[in-house]
C-alpha cells in the first residue's frame, strides 16, 4: 500500500469514528438516555439496580398517559414513577382501591397484596399542567401522596421504555 492510500484510509476511519460519536451524543442528549432504578418503590415492575432506557423525545410531541412509567427530574435526584392522575382529575384511595373521578381504576400492574397494604388518601384534585404519580410498591414509595407532591409537566423528562440491565431482565417496561 502506498503512503497516500494508507493516509486516506486513516482519514476515512477517523471521519467515520467522529461521525459515530456525534450521532451517539445527539441521540443521548435529545432522544434516549439511561437511568438507574434506586430503591424498591417500583417493585415488582422495576427492581433496585435495574438500568432503563428512557425516551426523552416522546413528551415533546405528546402528553404523559395514565400508566406511563416516567422519569421525574428534581434538583437533587431523578425519580422513576407511574403516572396515575392527569391534570384536572380527582384522585382518592379508599382501603387501597384507587378511584379516579369517583370511578374505580383497575391497577393490573400491582398485586392484591400491595393494594391491601395501601391506606386511604384524598380526595384531591390535580392542578392543570400537573400529574399525580405513584410507585408500584405503594407501602414504601415516596410519591405524590407523601413527599413528591404534584409533578409539574416540565419535570417529566422521559418515558421508561426498555430494561437493559441486568441482561436477564432485558425487555420492555410495562
Automatic annotation (TrEMBL):
Residue span, Peptidase S26 domain: 10-164
EC identifiers of the protein: 3.4.21.89
UniProt xrefs under SUPFAM superfamilies: LexA/Signal peptidase
GO molecular function, one term: signal peptidase activity
Gene Ontology BP, a term: signal peptide processing
Active site: 41, 81
Protein name: Signal peptidase I
Amino acid at each position: 500500500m502506498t503512503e497516500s492510500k494508507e493516509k486516506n484510509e486513516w482519514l476515512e476511519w477517523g471521519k467515520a469514528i467522529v461521525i459515530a460519536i456525534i450521532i451517539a451524543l445527539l441521540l443521548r442528549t435529545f432522544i434516549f438516555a439511561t437511568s438507574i432504578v434506586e430503591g424498591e418503590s417500583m417493585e415488582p415492575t422495576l427492581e433496585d439496580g435495574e438500568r432503563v432506557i428512557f425516551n426523552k423525545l416522546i413528551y415533546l410531541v405528546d402528553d404523559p398517559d395514565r400508566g406511563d412509567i416516567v422519569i421525574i427530574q428534581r434538583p437533587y435526584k431523578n425519580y422513576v414513577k407511574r403516572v396515575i392522575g392527569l391534570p384536572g382529575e380527582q384522585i382518592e384511595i379508599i382501603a387501597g382501591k384507587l378511584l379516579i373521578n369517583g370511578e374505580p381504576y383497575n391497577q393490573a400492574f400491582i398485586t392484591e397484596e400491595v393494594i391491601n397494604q395501601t391506606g386511604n388518601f384524598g380526595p384531591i384534585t390535580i392542578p392543570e399542567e400537573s400529574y399525580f404519580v405513584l410507585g408500584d410498591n405503594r407501602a414504601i414509595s415516596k410519591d405524590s401522596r407523601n413527599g413528591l407532591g404534584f409533578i409539574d409537566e416540565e419535570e417529566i423528562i422521559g418515558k421508561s421504555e426498555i430494561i437493559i440491565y441486568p441482561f436477564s431482565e432485558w425487555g420492555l417496561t410495562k
